[in-house]
């Protein structure tokens, strides 16, 4: 998810004048080859850990209720708290009289710390049957992916700061993400937000499926750079969707 220079509905972040110059990627590492983009950094991604995350989230049975979302948030926060160099903040809000949280994990940048690359996923799930909403694909898959991003970046110092956000109550009307956007409007200048990657339903297709990168025209350079990185470091086919209707 990225934004353009015009007014956007609630839940979206605008960027005045477009993104900062450069590809915006949180690229090179912090004096260690393991943090530089490439095979060593990718080797930090552990499928077994991601599967364990998926099993926990799906094992809750549903992630629509307040109680189950609290359990999911506690698990994510616990896993993030184990990571070196990752700062975790809770953003609390009230919805229908009950307290919920979004979680934000930050890896501080070393050269351009005030510029931010973001990615996020929602950890709630919905179903026509509220008692059974395990949400394996939508969106335990995205949550596990973003959590693993944080683990892979643990101990690293990218050029720009990286923020990884876990949203609650997304499937009931973007409630969590709207709350988060409202909370950062005064602290993150819009021209410092390089780009946001929404990680949603990444386990939907078979392993022959391509990766769709959808964005609005002002962020084409960010999409191009992201696609180039994916194509360079993985064998995953990439499909770019650039349209004013994205988002």
Short synopsis of the structure:
The model is unreliable at 1-31 (pLDDT under 50). The strands form two sheets. This protein has a five-stranded mixed β-sheet with strand order 1-2-4-3-5, sandwiched between helices. The chain has a two-stranded parallel sheet with strand order 6-7. Helix 2 crosses helix 4 (136-153).
CATH class division: Alpha Beta
- Calculate the terminal CA-CA distance, rounded to whole Å: 6 Å
* Tally of discrete structural domains: 1
Q: What is the CATH topology classification name?
A: Aminopeptidase
Order of helices and strands: HHHEEEHEHEEHE
**What is the radius of gyration?**
17 Å
Share of β-strand residues:
15-25%
Layout: helices, strands, pairs:
Layout: H1 39-42, H2 47-59, H3 66-80, E1 87-95, E2 98-107, E3 112-122, H4 136-153, E4 160-167, H5 175-184, E5 193-198, E6 211-215, H6 220-233, E7 238-242
Parallel strand pairs: 3-4, 3-5, 6-7
Antiparallel strand pairs: 1-2, 2-4
Helix pairs in contact: 2-4
How would you explain this protein's 3D organization?
The longest helix is centred in the middle third of the chain and has 18 residues, at 136-153. The protein is globular, with a radius of gyration of 17 Å. The strands form two sheets. Strands 1-2-4-3-5 form a five-stranded mixed sheet, sandwiched between helices. It has a two-stranded parallel ribbon with strand order 6-7. The termini are close together. Strand 6 (211-215), helix 6 and strand 7 form a beta-alpha-beta unit. It has helices spanning 39-42, 47-59, 66-80, 136-153, 175-184, 220-233; strands spanning 87-95, 98-107, 112-122, 160-167, 193-198, 211-215, 238-242. It has one domain: Zn peptidases (Aminopeptidase, 3-Layer(aba) Sandwich), CATH 3.40.630. It is of the alpha/beta class.
């Amino acid at each position: 998810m990225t934004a353009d220079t015009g007014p956007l509905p609630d839940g979206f972040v605008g960027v005045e004048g477009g993104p900062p110059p450069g590809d915006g990627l949180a690229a090179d590492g912090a004096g260690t080859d393991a943090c530089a983009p490439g095979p060593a950094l990718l080797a930090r991604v552990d499928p077994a850990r991601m599967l364990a995350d998926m099993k926990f989230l799906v094992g809750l049975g549903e992630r629509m209720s307040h109680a189950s979302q609290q359990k999911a948030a506690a698990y994510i926060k616990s896993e993030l708290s184990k990571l070196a160099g990752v700062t975790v903040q809770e953003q609390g809000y009230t919805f229908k009289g009950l307290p919920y949280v979004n979680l934000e994990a930050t890896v501080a940048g070393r050269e351009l710390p005030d510029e931010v690359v973001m990615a996020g996923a929602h950890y709630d799930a919905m179903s026509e049957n509220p008692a059974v909403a395990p949400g394996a694909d939508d969106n335990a898959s995205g949550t596990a992916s973003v959590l693993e991003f944080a683990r892979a970046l643990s101990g690293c110092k990218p050029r720009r700061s990286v923020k990884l956000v876990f949203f609650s109550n997304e499937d009931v009307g973007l409630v969590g993400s709207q709350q988060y956007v409202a909370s950062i409007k005064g602290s993150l200048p819009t021209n410092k937000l390089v780009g946001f990657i929404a990680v949603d339903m990444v386990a939907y297709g078979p392993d022959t499926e391509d990766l769709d990168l959808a964005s609005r025209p002002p962020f084409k350079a960010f999409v191009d750079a992201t696609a180039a990185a994916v194509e360079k470091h993985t064998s995953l086919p990439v499909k770019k969707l650039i349209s004013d209707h994205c988002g």
